[in-house]
Amino acid sequence: TAIARMNGLIEALYIYDDNRKPILSHTYTGRPLSAKHLLPLYLEHPVPRPNLIYLPNASPATLIFSLTHANLLFLATSSTEIEPLLVIEFLHRVIDAFEDIIAA
For the chain, N or C: smaller number of CB within 10 Å? Predict the structure, then answer.
């Protein structure tokens, strides 16, 4: 049997401070939602928010992957199917790199 592979891409990375102001926004590919438009869509979901939220009404429909660390909110987006664990691992690596930069 063939195993279906998901070839999705992380389209953007956003980091928000504890006041929910964007401190970093980076687009890798495509035309993802802006940091300004993404945050309210994320925040409208009740706490505790899952690490993966699907926004079917966004244009395009968007997956939001999230982690919170040290009062910072890390969000990554994709408009195609992608392996969730890979995106969460990516966010953990971003957090590690961020900590290394701040500690230096």
Answer: N
